[in-house]
Amino acid sequence: ALSGLPVKALVPPGVCQLTDDWTSVPLLERINVTSNSHVLRFGPLPDKSTPLNLSTCACILAKTDKKSKDDGEVTSVIRPYTPVSTNNLNGYFDLLVKDYGPSNAETGGGLSNHLCSTMNVGDTIDFKHIKFNIKIQYPEFASKKIIMLVGGTGITPMIQALHAILGDDDSANNEVVMLYGSRTEDDILGRSLVDSWAKQYPKKFKSIVHVLSDEKESAVKNDNNVRYGYINQKLIEESASLINASPTTTCTDSAADSNNEDVIIFVCGPPPMYNALCG
């Protein structure tokens, strides 16, 4: 799921195999990506012969029940995930998940730790898909100038959008720049994939800059697409200038229209990132 060429395999909203009822799906495979992140393959789906049929940039919900060590009370932990696989795969789907460790209020861990560490291959977990989790659809953003502001696992819906944009030979007018924030170089999820796409499709994918918050300056050698600190106004303006776009915007959960109707800004990352960039 984190290699190969982009694939345009689009479906309209409303046909996803996962409905608004919880469906148990087994874990088929767990593939290490970094020291604390994995690609998790789930399947078979209820209909093994067809894809997940999730629309572009939409997400699904995963749920597990956890028992309190203190009083034994069982509570459900629910988190959204955007698959990194596309609708050209029949019968299963892939999630890219970072293990945030045991549950705590700051990281929202617990479920990610269960998926990456304590869940066994063959075990099942519940998934569902609801209308609220359907975001902006392709081709609504075809032929637009797009600024992607990404933090950590927020890369997953961007990968879905890039599949649609770069896999579409007809979207010649799309121009994309990305600022991708991570803690360290080792934390960059899916780096080889997005970096390779930027090199393969320079007319559409104009620029990708990795912004590292916890890395010492010059720690990454011979890499012109790395900056240090956090995504800020200066970096956004520099990237926007590459596509002659204004970065002025107000943000929603995943995408926002700027003052220019030909420019769209996608934002996805942890809550502190939304607070800093969107207010």
Automatic annotation (TrEMBL):
E.C. no: 1.6.2.2
Cellular component GO terms, alphabetical: mitochondrion
SUPFAM superfamilies: Ferredoxin reductase-like, C-terminal NADP-linked domain, Riboflavin synthase domain-like
Catalytic reaction annotation: 2 Fe(III)-[cytochrome b5] + NADH = 2 Fe(II)-[cytochrome b5] + NAD(+) + H(+)
Compartment(s) where it occurs, according to its Swiss-Prot or TrEMBL record: Mitochondrion
FAD-binding FR-type domain sequence ranges: 20-144
Binding locations of FAD: 79-81, 96, 98, 112, 156
Lineage top rank: taxon: Eukaryota
Sorted UniProt keywords: FAD, Flavoprotein, Mitochondrion, NAD, Oxidoreductase
InterPro entries recorded: CBR-like, Cbr1-like_FAD-bd_dom, FAD-bd_FR_type, Flavoprot_Pyr_Nucl_cyt_Rdtase, FNR_nucleotide-bd, OxRdtase_FAD/NAD-bd, Riboflavin_synthase-like_b-brl
CC cofactor: FAD
Matches recorded under Pfam families: FAD_binding_6, NAD_binding_1
GO MF entry, a single one: cytochrome-b5 reductase activity, acting on NADH
Extent of the signal sequence: none
Family: Belongs to the flavoprotein pyridine nucleotide cytochrome reductase family.
Protein name from the UniProt record: cytochrome-b5 reductase
Organism annotation: Fragilariopsis cylindrus CCMP1102
